[in-house]
């Protein structure tokens, strides 16, 4: 009977379901987009390592309104400071020194502009680097500053066409020959700080022999030991950095200690705001949709008064009539929700070609959306259904 009503009154049904469709579209769309983005960001943040602290010149989150000109006047972290921290810290499990720049790579007639990372030996202990061909840089090669490198999948593809042909070949980096010893497994589109597909990794000492390394955004990443909190490690690192820089008790810190976990908390807060905004927009649409469903159900009750009267005359109880109209109201809302779901699915197919991370619709979001549809359908239809259930059969039959 509900399907028949949809077919007979197409325009009325469309206008009534439109609000529900938009509301569910907003809920599923926003939750799916935020979930996918949050999953991607957390996945990429995890590549920085757990329980991480970054030592550098700039603060990720300037919560104290520190003047920007003071940041600029801060000295860059030095490799000697990295060695001091490594030798004296007791709370750190691993740490590495990192510089990066861009350079034009060349192999025969093929060129590629890549990110160049110059790093110390414990880089792979903290970062996840999956080697697809060849091997990673050894500790001896790091210590001796040998002219070897590991390149990303896209770099290998552009220079050698086949990544497996890259191992053992020499490429030119800023006019210097470097031997490729490994190729990193393809990552795909990433939004984290390490774009390994488009990068080349070199031992720090070799990197520093070519570039002015301490001018190229040097950073120290420190991972705490199991059971050691980031707060405790930050306190130790602050004391060591003040010691190595010979700062008096009256002088402010001229370095930044960035807790990656706090950065994650800020990201979670941002996603919470996005979710709340999505619910607010969806709530307005669902409110309009609920009134639309209630309106169509009132009209349906009025049009079928004689049928209701006949059913009650044949013995149908009030709860039977009530249940019939509640099911019909819920069914209408579910149809609106299903249309909204289809629209979101089509949107994900379109957006997948333009954004750097996959969008997925989690099962819990679909269950939540259709639970809302059922609840909204029952809530919107309860008054019309109650009116229908309380009709006097004789009066109802004579209504036409």
UniProtKB/TrEMBL annotation:
A molecular function (GO) term: transmembrane transporter activity
Membrane topology category: Multi-pass membrane protein
Superkingdom classification of source: Bacteria
Location of the protein in the cell: Cell membrane
Domain ABC3 transporter permease C-terminal, residue spans: 280-393
Record-linked Pfam families: FtsX, MacB_PCD
Residue span(s) of domain MacB-like periplasmic core: 13-238
GO cellular component: plasma membrane
Keyword line: Cell membrane, Membrane, Transmembrane, Transmembrane helix
Record flagged with keyword Transmembrane helix: yes
Alphabetical list of PROSITE patterns matching this protein: EF_HAND_1
Transmembrane intervals: 12-34, 279-301, 321-347, 359-383
Subcellular location, principal: membrane
Family: Belongs to the ABC-4 integral membrane protein family.
Protein name: FtsX-like permease family protein
Originating organism: Arachidicoccus soli
């Amino acid at each position: 009977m509900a399907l028949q009503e949809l077919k007979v009154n197409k325009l009325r049904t469309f206008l009534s379901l439109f609000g529900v469709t938009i509301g569910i579209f907003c809920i599923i769309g926003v939750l799916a987009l935020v979930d996918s983005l949050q999953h991607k960001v957390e996945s990429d943040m995890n590549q920085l390592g757990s329980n991480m602290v970054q030592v550098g010149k700039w603060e990720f989150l300037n919560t104290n309104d520190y003047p920007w000109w003071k940041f600029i006047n801060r000295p860059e972290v030095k490799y000697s400071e990295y060695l001091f921290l490594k030798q004296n810290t007791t709370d750190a499990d691993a740490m590495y020194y990192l510089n990066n720049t861009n350079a034009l790579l060349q192999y025969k007639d093929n060129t590629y502009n890549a990110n160049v990372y110059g790093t110390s030996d414990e880089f792979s202990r903290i970062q996840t680097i999956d080697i697809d061909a060849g091997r990673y840089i050894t500790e001896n090669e790091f210590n001796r500053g040998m002219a070897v490198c590991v390149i990303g999948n896209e770099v290998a593809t552009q220079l050698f066409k086949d990544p497996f042909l890259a191992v053992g070949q020499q490429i030119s980096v800023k006019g210097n020959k470097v031997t490729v010893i490994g190729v990193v497994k393809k990552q795909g589109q990433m939004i984290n700080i390490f774009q390994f597909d488009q990068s080349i990794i070199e031992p720090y000492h070799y990197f520093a022999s070519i570039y002015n390394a301490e001018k190229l955004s040097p950073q120290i990443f420190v991972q705490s030991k199991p059971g050691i909190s980031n707060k405790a490690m930050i306190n130790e690192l602050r004391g060591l950095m003040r010691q190595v820089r010979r700062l008096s008790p009256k002088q402010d810190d001229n370095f930044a200690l960035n807790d990656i976990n706090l950065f994650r908390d800020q990201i979670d807060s941002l996603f919470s705001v996005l979710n709340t905004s999505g619910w607010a927009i969806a709530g307005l649409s669902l409110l309009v949709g609920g009134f639309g469903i209630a309106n169509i159900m009132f009209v349906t009750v009025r049009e079928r008064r004689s049928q209701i009267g006949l059913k009650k005359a044949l013995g149908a109880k009030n709860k039977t009539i009530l249940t019939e109209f509640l099911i019909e109201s819920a069914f209408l809302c579910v149809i609106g929700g299903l249309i909204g779901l289809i629209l979101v699915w089509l949107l994900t197919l379109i957006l997948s070609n333009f954004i750097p991370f996959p969008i997925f619709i989690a099962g819990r979001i679909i269950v939540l959306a259709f639970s809302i549809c059922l609840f909204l359908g029952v809530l919107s239809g309860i008054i019309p259904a109650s009116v229908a259930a309380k009709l006097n059969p004789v009066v109802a039959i004579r209504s036409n």
